Structure formats: C-alpha cells, structure tokens
Amino acid sequence: MKIRVVRTASKAKALQVVRYQNNKRIVLQHIGSAHTTEALNDLMILAEEWIKDYTRQLSIFPDENPNRLLHLNHSTFIGIKYYFFYKQIRAIQDMIKLDDLPALLNDLVTIRIFEPASKLRSLELMEQFFGISHSRKIYYKIAPDCINLKKIVENKVVNFAEVHYSFNFDILFYDVTTLYFETFEEDELRKNGFSKDNKSQQPQILIALMVSKEGFPVAYEVFSGNTFEGHTIIPVIKDFIERNGVKDFTVVADAAMISSENVEQLTKNNINYIVGARLGNISTTLLKTIDKNISREDGKSIRIKTDNGYLICSYSSVRYRKDKYEMEKQIEKAKQVIAKPSKSKKLKFTQTKGQEIELNEVLIEKTQKLLGIKGYYTNLEESIADNKTIIDRYHELYKIEQAFRISKNDLQTRPIFHFKEEPIKLHILICFMALVISKHIELKTGISIRKFIDESKKIVDGDILNHITQKIVTIKAQPTQKIKELIAKLELPH
Question: Is the pTM of this model over 0.90?
C-alpha cells in the first residue's frame, strides 16, 4: 500500500492511496488535491491516517493524535453535544456518593434536569445531547429494582447534607403538595382529593417533602391522593427520626398539620414543633384573650398557653391593610348575593336563617378583631426560643415552597403520565434526586438552576465526521469565564 502523487490538469497535485496487484494499480482512496507544498503535506498526514485505519495499524508513537488534522471540505457536521454539562452533573452525583447506583438511574436524573421528558423520550435525548446510549430493554429490566433504592438515596443525601451544609437534624421544614395525572381513572394510589393544582376532577398523589434550614431536600414520602395532609406528618417524621437516630428535633409546618391528635403524638415522641395557627377556628374565650392582650403595633407579640401548645400571636400593619381589604371585598360580595340570592353561591360572610340569606355579623365581628394578627403554635419554651425566633423560623417555610416550585416547574414533575404504582414511584425518586442536585447548585452558586443550565448550554461541543478516516472528531468548546466561576463555587473540576 502506497501513497501516490498525481499531477492534475489544473497543475495541482492529487494524493491517492493505492496498492499493486499482479502489476495492476488499484486506487483505494482519493485523499484530495493541493496547489501548495503546505497543503500537500496536510494531505499526506490524512493519507497516513487513512492507511492506519484501513490496515488497523497501531502507532508506535503513543502520543500521536490520530485526528490532529481536520479538513472541513472532507468532513460533515453531525450534531452538537453537551458533554460539559453532563460531566459536571455526574461530578456532583459522585460527590453525593450516587455513583454506585445504576448508571441509567443517574443518567435519567441528569436528563431530567437538562431537558425533562417522558422516560422513553429521555433515552433518546441522552443519546442526542450526551452521546449516552441506554436501550429500552435495559430500562424495563432495572426500573423495578430502582424503586427499592429510595432509602439508600435518602441516606446518601442526608450524609451529604451533614458534610456540605453542617446539617445536624436540629430543625426541619415539612410540607406537602399534590401531583395530578392526565386521566380521570382512580386506583389504590391515584385518588381524587383536595388539589393544590386546581385539578380536583383528576386523580392525584400526595408528596411530603422535608428540607433543611437552607432549603436542601433530605427526605420525601408518597401518599395516596385522598390522604388528609394533616395525617402525613407523624409517620414521615417518626420514620426519619428512627432511621437517623435523631434525639433533639424541631419540625416546622403550616397550619394544616395542627390538630389535637398530632400535638399529642408529637409531644409523645419528644418532637418539638412550630406550626401555623388557624385563628378563625379558635374559641370565643381565646379570641377575647388575644383581643384584650395583644398590642396592635408592628413587631409586638404575645404568648398564650393552650391545649395545642403555646399560641404566639403577632401584629403587622401591612397584614392589617391586606386583611381589611380582603374582608371588605368578601362583605361586598355577600351583600350582592343577599340582594340577588343564588343557590350555587355560599360566601364566607353569609348565613341562612330560615329561607333567608343574611350577613353573618358574628363572623364579621370576629374577623375584625383578628385583622393584622397571625398565629403560630409551638411547644418550645420561651427560654429556648423566644417569640421572634419562632416567627422567623416559621416564615422560613418559603424555602420548601421554593423546592416544590423547582420540582414542578423546572423539573416538570407534573403532570404524571404513568399509570402503575412502580413507574410512578420511580418517577418521584428521579425527580427527588434531580431536586437535590438542582438545589445544591442553587445554594452554592447563588443563581437559579434554569440560569445555570442556560449558561452551561453555551459550552457546546461539535461532532464532525472525517470522511477520509471515517472517524468522529469532537471539537470541544472552552468554558466561559462565567461558567468557570460557577464551577469554582461548586468545587468541581473543569
């Protein structure tokens, strides 16, 4: 096999790879034509590479780059890849010690962050964006086993939080949300219930989530859609405490979690709590106590001992104006219904007396006394946590709301298109893992996961097919200064 140089009619020099058989010359590959010595030398390198590939020769020079020269006129652009983003997410997964889990599971998490889609579509996107190939057969084979990894994943996440966020179990924020399905058929898990997505006609599931004081998710649980959210907190908290051997613990939750039964169970299990109070449901006696003792000045608060623990009430002039506006709007609507009765409309400040609809003056008076006042229940003594501390901790519940927002919007947890319990629970596991990584990125970089993805997408690698060597050459992009700064904050290599 030889390289042959031929003079063309245009006085250029053409390079061919030829071999001789029975004194007959056979052209194996036309490499190209050159008008200059430099171009001819380049073609000579390509010819040598082609011969090596054709004959499967190994180079005696290990440092030699087989694709050190790329001629665009002998190449085809195949597509783009986001190898950089993939490697950064995998690096975070390694930090969390998720690297010993099935590669397919981690890759499904990565593509969920990058481009949320159905599981089968995700397999296609992995190939398209990351050059990672997983067959449908493998997915269906390992998917059932991945569901059993929930506790393992949670343990790894908690250990990670202990190291990177100094998580010491002293306080956790608890809340629930609903995820609906694109169907109207119920089963044992998918049930109709109170929907936070305003999809009351569609079956749903209930998701309980626990996050640290920074907003970092550490645990979750799945309940059937008709489960009352107040019935979820005790089993979830107890399970978390038992698994992690927690002794001193405070849970922060919204008003839906407070009940005499829950208070009794929390106290019995030595669990401290800070929960919202629904003042509209309090007794007349307690209302009189609040009205008599509270100072209607910004920042002022009182503490009253009740059957549900200490009731802390605080006043805000901003809240007063908002509450007053809402009350007056509701009263005006009530008056309109009274003037023109409607069987379908039952408003807050109306009541039925015989056949007549009238204003509920008692409720209006009660509401007026509570304007601007917000309530909180806790079993923490004032010597441990004063009123301001209790209030401040409760208002940090927005961090769990942020986590739900990331999950529902950026990761597109909802709607769920699965119809069997196992795929549903696998979907939630993938979304939880994606949420953990996304929240870590947000906490460390100070930007949203969406902005991080957008910045990462600027680092685009191009795949080009060299027709001479029949090899795919990847042209790698250099990280921007911005992404270098973000990666440095994440303490990742780039």
Answer: no
Give the structural domain span for 13: 1-69
Residue 400 belongs to some domain of the structure: no
Give the start-end residues of each E strand in 107-160.
none
pLDDT tens-place values along the chain, 494 residues long: 788 888 888 888 888 888 888 888 888 888 888 888 877 887 887 788 777 777 765 444 444 444 444 555 667 777 888 999 999 999 999 999 999 999 999 999 999 999 988 888 899 999 999 999 998 888 888 888 888 899 999 999 999 999 999 898 888 888 888 775 554 444 445 455 454 455 555 677 888 889 998 889 999 998 876 787 778 888 899 899 989 988 888 999 888 777 888 888 888 888 899 999 989 889 999 999 999 999 999 989 999 999 888 999 999 999 999 999 999 999 998 888 888 877 656 788 888 887 788 899 999 999 999 999 999 999 999 999 999 999 999 988 887 777 777 666 655 554 555 556 777 888 889 989 999 999 999 999 999 999 999 999 999 888 888 776 677 777 788 888 999 999 999 987 65
Judged by DSSP in three states, 17 sits in: strand
Cβ-in-10-Å burial (0-12, 13-18, 19+) of 377 comes to: buried
Q: Computed from CA positions of residues 127, 132, 133, 138, in that sequence, does the dihedral angle turn out positive or negative?
A: negative
Rounded to an integer, what distance in angstroms lies between the CA atom of residue 359 and that of residue 331? 8
Q: Is 64 part of a structural domain of the chain?
A: yes
Domain count, the chain: 1
Return d(Cα 485, Cα 303) in angstroms, integer: 47
In a domain, residue 16? The reply is yes
CA–CA separation, 87 and 363 (whole Å): 60
**From CA 280, how far away is CA 295, in angstroms rounded?**
19
CA angle at 451 for the pair 445 and 452, rounded to the nearest 5°: 50
Q: What whole-number distance in Å separates Cα of residue 370 and Cα of residue 306?
A: 18
Residue 42 counted as domain residue = yes
Alpha-carbon span 34 to 53, nearest angstrom: 22
Strand order in the sheet with 461-466: 75-81, 461-466, 471-475
Q: Listing from the earlier edge strand, what are the strands of the sheet with 2-7?
A: 2-7, 13-21, 24-34
